[in-house]
Amino acid sequence: MSKENEQVFQHYDSFVVLSSDEHKKQEWLEFGQSLGLECVGCLDSSLEGQEEIYKRF
């Protein structure tokens, strides 16, 4: 989360978080929301294991 990220985020009204680190996901979520953006997706990332898709309604 940098000044450059903040400048990019200013051009949008929503964002998606993609990370393998639970702590970093939370940090990005808070960062985007602090700029008034809506998080439309929060995805887990992994380079190992099997591919899985979770639905949440």
Task: Tell me about this structure.
Strand 1 (14-19), helix 2 (22-34) and strand 2 (38-44) form a beta-alpha-beta unit. The protein has one domain (3-44). It is elongated and about 35 Å long. It has a two-stranded parallel sheet. It contains two helices and two strands. The protein is α+β, with helices and mostly antiparallel strands.
- Choose one word for the global shape: elongated
Strand content: 15-25%
> pLDDT average, as an integer?
88
Order of helices and strands: HEHE
Straight-line N-to-C gap: 29 Å
Number of distinct helices: 2
The gyration radius over C-alpha positions equals 13 Å
Number of structural domains: 1
Total DSSP E strands: 2
What is the structural class? alpha+beta
Helix content: 25-40%
Main sheet attributes: strand count, strand direction, barrel closure = 2 strands, parallel
Q: Stretches where pLDDT falls below 50 for ≥5 residues? A: none
- Could you give the order of strands across the largest sheet? 1-2
Ordered list of secondary-structure elements with their pairings:
Layout: H1 3-9, E1 14-19, H2 22-34, E2 38-44
Parallel strand pairs: 1-2
Give a brief outline of the structure.
By secondary structure, the chain is α+β, with helices and mostly antiparallel strands. 35% of the residues lie in helices and 23% in strands.
